[in-house]
C-alpha cells in the first residue's frame, strides 16, 4: 500500500511542486490538497491520509493550531510533517511541541522530501535530529519545564529505557540502537514502545521533545 499524503499550504506553487515530487514515487500517493489549516480536519476525516505535509504559517489557521486541533479531535490522526521556509524558526519548534512529527524545508531537494515523508510514515527514526536539537536549545524551556519534569519523574523509566531515550534523542533509528546496545531490533522496538507509553508520547519526536524540555537530555 502506498503512503498517502495530504498537502496543506497557502501557496499553490508549493503544493504543485510537492505533488510533482511525491507522485513521481511508486510508493507515495497525494490524495488531496488544502490552502489553509482550517480545511485540514474535514479533509483528514474524509481522506484518511497517512501523512499531512503542512505549512507552518498560513493566513486563517496556522500549522501549529491546526496540529493541536487535529490531534485533539481526530481518532488515529495521521503523521504531521511541518513544511517551512526557515529552519531556525520558533514556529517550527512550537509545532513540534504541539505534536508535529518532524519538519521539512521548502527548499529541500526532491530526494530529501521523499525521504522525509517515508521516514515520518515509518516513525522509527527522528527526522533531522541535529536541527530539532538546535531548535530545542534556541527556543525550548530546557530543564525549566516543570510539567515535562513531572512527566519524566512519573514515568520511572528503567535504566535500559533511559538509555534508549538518550539514543533516540541523538537521532538513532531502531536498528542503530540495536547495534549500539547489542540487542535485537524487536527488543529495541519493545523498549521504544514502553518509553512512549510511559511518557504519554504519541511518537519518538514527542518523547525527545519531552526529554529536552525536562532537562533529562541536554540539547547541546
Automatic annotation (TrEMBL):
Residues modified as 4-aspartylphosphate: 55
Pfam assignment, any one: Response_reg
InterPro entries in the cross-refs: CheY-like_superfamily (IPR011006), NreC/VraR/RcsB-like_REC (IPR058245), Sig_transdc_resp-reg_C-effctor (IPR016032), Sig_transdc_resp-reg_receiver (IPR001789), Tscrpt_reg_LuxR_C (IPR000792), WalR-like (IPR039420)
Keyword Isomerase belongs to the record: no
One term of GO molecular function: DNA binding
Domain Response regulatory: 4-121
Any GO BP annotation: phosphorelay signal transduction system
CDD domains tied to this protein: LuxR_C_like, REC_NarL-like
Alphabetic keyword roster: DNA-binding, Phosphoprotein, Transcription, Transcription regulation
The HTH luxR-type domain, residue ranges: 150-215
Entry protein name: LuxR family transcriptional regulator
Organism: Streptomyces variegatus
Amino acid at each position: 500500500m502506498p503512503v498517502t499524503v495530504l498537502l496543506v499550504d497557502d501557496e499553490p506553487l508549493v503544493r504543485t511542486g510537492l505533488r510533482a515530487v511525491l507522485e513521481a514515487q511508486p510508493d507515495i500517493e497525494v490524495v488531496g490538497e488544502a490552502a489553509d489549516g482550517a480545511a485540514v480536519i474535514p479533509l483528514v476525516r474524509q481522506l484518511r491520509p497517512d501523512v499531512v505535509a503542512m505549512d507552518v504559517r498560513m493566513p486563517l489557521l496556522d500549522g501549529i493550531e491546526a496540529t493541536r486541533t487535529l490531534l485533539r479531535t481526530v481518532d488515529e490522526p495521521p503523521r504531521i510533517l511541518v513544511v517551512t521556509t526557515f529552519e531556525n524558526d520558533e514556529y517550527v519548534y512550537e509545532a513540534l511541541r504541539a505534536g508535529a512529527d518532524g519538519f521539512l524545508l521548502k527548499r529541500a531537494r526532491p530526494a530529501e522530501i521523499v525521504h522525509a515523508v517515508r521516514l515520518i510514515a515509518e516513525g522509527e527514526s527522528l527526522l533531522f535530529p541535529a536541527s530539532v536539537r538546535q531548535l530545542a536549545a534556541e527556543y525550548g524551556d530546557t530543564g525549566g519545564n516543570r510539567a515535562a519534569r513531572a512527566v519524566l519523574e512519573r514515568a520511572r523509566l528503567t535504566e535500559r529505557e533511559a538509555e534508549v531515550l538518550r539514543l533516540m534523542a541523538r537521532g538513532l533509528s531502531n536498528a542503530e540502537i540495536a547495534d549500539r546496545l547489542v540487542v535485537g531490533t524487536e527488543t529495541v522496538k519493545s523498549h521504544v514502545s514502553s518509553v512512549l507509553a510511559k511518557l504519554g508520547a504519541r511518537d519518538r519526536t514527542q518523547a525527545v521533545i519531552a526529554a529536552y524540555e525536562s532537562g533529562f537530555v541536554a540539547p547541546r
